Amino acid sequence: MNRAIESFDPGSTFKLATAIAGARAGLGDRIFSCNGYVAYGNHKAGCWIWNQSKGSHGSQNVSKAIQQSCNPYFFRLANAVGPRGMAETFTLLNLGKPTGIELPSERPGAVIGSPSWRLRNPSTTVTPVDTAFLAIGQGVSSASPLQLAALTSCIANGGRYYQPRVVKQVARGSEILIPDQPKLLTNLLDQGVKPEDMERIRKGMWMAVNQPGGTAGRVKMPNIEVAAKTGTAQSVDRGKKSNNSWTVSFAPYENPKYAVCVLVIGGKSGGKVCGPLVHLIYRGLFALEDGLRLPLQPQDEVLGNTDSIEEILLPEDTLAAVEAEEITETAEDVQSNMKTSNATPESDNPTEILPTPTITPEIDSAGTILRAIPIEE
């Protein structure tokens, strides 16, 4: 299985596509209120802050809602757009259909109300609850890491969606067999989205990393501005309840060069599990730009496991460097109870660059717990 092009429950990463749908509908500057939940009949669809402490976010714009990953904001925005507008925008963003990358067996994912979904469900009505759940990547929703990386790249590019590709250019001597010509599939600025709408979305992702109250504080770099969005989706792994945790990101904020998407199957929190991994990837990428070699070495084979990962802790020197103590991390918006890990790094060596995973064996008690081998710089 090539997990880069396999489909998974996307969680709150879909709030980015919902924000774009709102912008296409002329709602990019709309303010919505979070009272903790939105009632659909007798069911209360809650925000993570309501589920955690019966709290609420109050009135928010799209940037603040992205920063704090507020469910009710996106519930209300999605239903203001309507199921047709939501499906049309998601389809424009190659969600619910293949990206067309030159790889076999790419999965299209699922978007309720999309053309492919309607072919399979011609007589089914998309309800307000369905639309609300699509907005936060639950219900009939799935996407691949590649699709979400491409969506993030589109946001980084200010609304230009380029088709992902494996081959950049092919030459034989001086003859160019395949030219380096990226294929522009969608320019959102031609689809009713304004430049200021895209900047609001970009700004929300920046706030999620760099301002107190954001869900992606552990992505933060000391000298490079990163923008990100986290997500944690309820899922089922081999018949048992599990979570998919995500962080999608781009950097640098001005003049972006990279879009990075990390998915951890069985991760309990996008911010606590995927955020540190995204941080380490950027640390490696920018080290290479500075002419440094990554401290990599072969490792022995290890047995796999399906244990849930509560949290990945960055080394203390890294936390100090990104001033993590000044970042107020919020709980993820997954609709389940989460445990707080009290684990600390296994080593006091300040030169270690690998994180320490905190693993809770909840799924497979017979699984082998992996221990990362620190590699010194």
Describe this structure in words.
The chain is α+β, with helices and mostly antiparallel strands. The chain has one domain: 3-Layer(aba) Sandwich (Beta-lactamase), CATH 3.40.710. It has eleven helices and 15 strands. It has a three-stranded antiparallel sheet, sandwiched between helices. Strands 1-4 form a two-stranded antiparallel sheet. Strand 2 and strand 3 form a beta hairpin. Helix 3 runs parallel beside helix 9. The longest helix is centred in the last third of the chain and has 20 residues. The chain is globular and about 65 Å long. The two termini are 33 Å apart. The C terminus is likely disordered.
- The radius of gyration computed from the alpha-carbon positions, rounded to a whole number of angstroms, is 20 Å
- Whole-number count of domains: 1
Helix amount: 25-40%
Low-confidence stretches: 323-331, 333-355, 358-377
- Based on the coordinates given, report the CATH architecture: 3-Layer(aba) Sandwich
Oligomer: single chain
Ends: how far apart?
A: 33 Å
The biggest beta sheet is recorded as: 3 strands, antiparallel
List the total number of helices.
11
CATH topology: Beta-lactamase
Shape: globular
- CATH top level class name: Alpha Beta
CATH H-level superfamily = DD-peptidase/beta-lactamase superfamily
**Number of DSSP E strands:** 15
Round the mean pLDDT to the nearest integer and report it.
83
Run of helices and strands: HEEEHEHHHEHHEHEEEEHEEEHEHE
**Strand order in the sheet with the most strands:** 11-12-13
> What class would the helix/strand composition place it in?
alpha+beta
The percent range for strand residues is 15-25%
